[in-house]
Amino acid sequence: MSTQWLNWAKRIQALSQSGLAFSKDIYDIERYEELRKISVEIIAEYTNLDMNKIEDLFANETGYQTPKVDVRGVVFKNDQILMVKENIDDKWALPGGFCDIELSPTENVVKEIKEESGYDVIPVKIIALLDKNKHPHPPEPYHYYKIFIMCEIIGGGPAVGPETNQVEFFSKNNLPPLSKNRNTESQIITMFEFLWNPHKETVFD
To answer: 187: which of 135, 149, 157, 202 lies 20 to 30 Å off by Cα?
Structure first.
C-alpha cells in the first residue's frame, strides 16, 4: 500500500504549523487551523487511531516545524557491535534515542548508551548523519535526522535499562531481528565499514 497519503499529511501539518507560528491575520490563522485539522483527518482516515490521540501526537507542537533528531551509539568490541533489545517491540537496535534539550549530541549518546546498555563510553567520531526518509524505515508521522556516533568503552558493564531487556554484541554476519524504526540492516552494515576503516569519511543523507 502506498504511503503517499502520509507524506501529504505531514506536509500539510508542517505548513499549517509554520503558518500558525508566524501569521498575524485572524483569517489566515483560521485557514491554517483548518489545514491542520485536515492533516489530522487524513491520518485518522488511513489508521485506526482516535482523532484526539492523533492531535496529541501529531499536531501538538508550535513554532516552525523542523526534523526531530535521533542519536545512536556505535560501539565495537572484538569486531562485534553493541546492540540492545527494545522493550517496545522486542527487537534489537543500537543504543540511543531522541536528543534531549540542554545536551549536545555527544552528551546525549553517552547518556543513552549508559542508560540502555550499562557501558560507560567516550565519543570518538560522528560517522553518519542520515535523513530517515532516505532509508528503508517503516513510515512515520514525523521527519527525523539520525546521528550515528562512534564511541569507545571506558568502563561499566552490560546492564539493561528501563527501555531495554537484553544487551549483546553481534558480528556483521549474525545480526539479530532489528527494530527497523530505529535502524536498518544496511545502516548496521555501514557502521561495520568504519570498524575496518577508521579513516572513512562521514556518511550523510
So the answer is: 157
How far is the C-alpha of 200 from the C-alpha of 205, rounded, in Å? 16
pTM to 2 decimal places:
0.79
Q: Phi first, then psi: give them for residue 61, nearest 5 degrees.
A: -100, 160
CB 190 within 8 A of CB 202: no
Residue in 79, 83, 80, 78 with CA at minimum distance from that of residue 158 = 83
Burial 126-160 (b: 16+ CB within 10 A, else e): bbbbbebeeeebeeebebbbbbbbbbebeeeeeeb
For residues 128 and 190, the answer to whether their CB atoms sit within 8 Å is: yes
CA–CA dist 45, 51 (Å, integer): 10
Q: Give the integer Cα–Cα distance in Å for 133 and 24.
A: 33
Report the DSSP pairing between strands 96-98 and 203-204: unpaired
Tell me which amino acid residue 4 is.
Answer: Q
Strand partners, 68: 144
Contact 174, 83 (CB under 8 A): no
Question: Furthest-apart CA pair in the chain: how many Å?
Answer: 63
Q: Which helix (H) or strand (E) holds 111?
A: helix 105-117
Do 188 and 136 contact (CB within 8 A), yes or no? no
Amino acid at 11: R
